[in-house]
Amino acid sequence: MKHTFFKRVLPFAVTAAALAAMQSCKPKGAQSAVGGDAASKVYVAPGKYDEFYNFVSGGFSGQMSVYGLPSGRLFRVIPVFSVDPEKGYGYSEESKAMLNTSTGFIPWDDLHHIALSTTDGSHDGRWAFGNANNTPRIARVDLKTFRTAEIIEIPNSAGNHSSPFITENTEYVVAGTRFSVPVGDKQDVPINTYKDNFKGTVSFIGVDAGSGRMNIAFQLLLPGVNFDLARAGKGKSHGWFFFSCYNSEKANTLLEVNASQKDKDFIIAINWKKAEEYVKAGKGQKKAVKYAHNVYDEATHSATSTIENEVIVLDPNELPDMVYMMPCPKSPHGCDTDPTGEYIVGSGKLAATIPVFSFTKMQEAIAAKNFEGEYDGIPVLKYDAVLHGEVKKPGLGPLHTEFDANGFAYTSFFVSSEIVKWNVKTLEVVDRVPTYYSIGHLCVPGGPTKKPWGKYVIAYNKITKDRYLPTGPELAQSAQLYSIDGDKMKLLLDFPTIGEPHYAEAIPADLLMKNSQKIYKIEENKHPHATLGDNNAKVVRKGNEVHVYMTSIRSHFTPDNIEGVKLGDVVYFHVTNLEQDWDIPHGFAVKGANNAELLIMPGETQTLTWKPDRTGVFPFYCTDFCSALHQEMQGYIRVSAAGANVPLTFSTGKTEPAAETK
Ligand code: K7E
Ligand code: CUA
């Protein structure tokens, strides 16, 4: 069983020695790994709060989910790149524009990585960024509201995997293309002209320090390799960005073999301060592109989507001293910088060691022009000249590394299913624990920052197998929490996650709690169809559009009786929730609406479009249990034949029968 499992996942090029190493670290039974005091360490008593928020990517669900640590309790799924019926995201008229792209509305994407905003390299609790892999985009989530505030599409990119990693002061989030693709005017080329026509790009997305608003500051045109992951420098390496890349073979078919030929691929080091200088000096070329930029406006509770047409491209072949390559064994996945910014860890999936590069040595090698050659015109630094050292026999299939505040690194090993703790300076392995099973990413709270909060490491696993009750062919996705307080890592808890978890970050609860928004103030509601009080409720006909300006407050809608709608009309329910109390949303659903429902927060206005397809009387009701009389929160709308002369009327609390009209 175990044997066939490993055979299935084992990459082609793993050596016999590596295989032997693999045998020594098979996970043992779960029971033996959990200490008796584990339960008390994760128990958060009823009414008590968790210590950390854990923001976890939802992978192919396209969402971000939020858990408490150490309890593992799920608090919220934040819809980002996929529609979400629980929140109405992508269904309400106001939110649809968030999912617009240069190719139209896309209801589902794939989110892999989270980046929490930082100031001076430390979490500031303002925003969480996430990437859309398939149709390249970056989203910014506002951590006051836990809502997606902005999404920007990335042109000249395909498979936005190397994203969204962040600089020390959130100057930029980056987006590196996983797939190299034809760039520029000539798009329709034979695939086997890859080496000539395909290019990689990385984009630097500027983030406005006040508003958080994103813009594509510039893009670098790079060799046609596959960009995988990235990290910004920090401290002494602030001003640099490091990207891992594979397929330096530039294969365009059967990459599992053809992109595993060379012993070394690269970590690409980009001096982004230098790039900024070039942009300022007008050295970038303006290229025509097409991408969507979607912004959610808090005042109007509405998203707008704008198509933009230009991007500034920098070419390192013409602009020197900006890009260098460091050889890195072999097909590196993760690329992580330690809290001091001195060490850059490359995790070669097929490598037998973990190389750790020194930023100081890299600077010296650049100054001394200690190059072993060039790759597509970009200087390649000598491996030995930039290497701090290698972690020997770390495990099999290293993927990602996180750090604590005490000089230790924690690397995930997919093939040998374990987390390995090692000393960043001495490169000695000091501890290892099994994970169940096949860990991908891992997270130490604050692990990517200058100030790790430490305390736990969380494993995000790719395969769950026998950990939970079976649920048909697909099992729960899974995270595991370990304490890292002592010398030895200790497994404390398994908890299921939504979608496949890739990267995650954790932040102390008190950094977010104090800013959490409770309501939308009704006096600040600038929605063009807001109804700021029961007295202003109305129904207005504009040709074949019927606009219902409706309010909801415990426990009725105004109006709740509407007549005069005719077949062929399109009805817009603009529902304003007049509540000004925390945690009192109202819902809205009307029978037969094939665009689902609404969920409206206190003080907010949301719109549901309904095109009735038959005559009759249709009930509508509140879908969110809001009071003891929630079940009474309902109404009727009458739809008559196209030619009928039923006048448009609306009311609440009037029991008089309307005069029958002929
Ligand atoms: Cu899951 Cu970050 Cu897409 Cu590694 S990547 S596991
Ligand atoms: Cu309003 Cu239930």
Give a brief rundown of this model.
This protein has 662 residues and is mainly β.
Count of strand segments: 45
Biggest beta sheet attributes: 10 strands, mixed
Structural class: mainly beta
Ligand catalogue: sulfanyl-(tricuprio-$l^{4}-sulfanyl)copper, dinuclear copper ion
User: How many helix segments?
Assistant: 11
**Averaged pLDDT, please?**
93
Approximate strand percentage: 35-45%
- Low-confidence segments, given as residue ranges, are 1-26
Estimate percent helicity: under 10%
> What is the overall silhouette?
globular
Distance between the termini: 76 Å
User: How much is the radius of gyration in Å?
Assistant: 27 Å
Describe the protein in words.
The chain has 662 residues and is mainly β. Helices cover 10% and strands 43% of the residues. It is built from eleven helices and 45 strands. The strands form ten sheets. Strands 6, 7, 8, 9, 10, 11, 12, 13, 17 and 18 form a ten-stranded mixed β-sheet that branches. A six-stranded mixed β-sheet has the order 41-40-43-44-38-45, with no helix packed on it. β17 and β18 (302-314) form a beta hairpin. The chain is globular. Residues 1-26 have low confidence and may be disordered. It binds sulfanyl-(tricuprio-$l^{4}-sulfanyl)copper and dinuclear copper ion. Sulfanyl-(tricuprio-$l^{4}-sulfanyl)copper binds next to β6, β26 and β30.
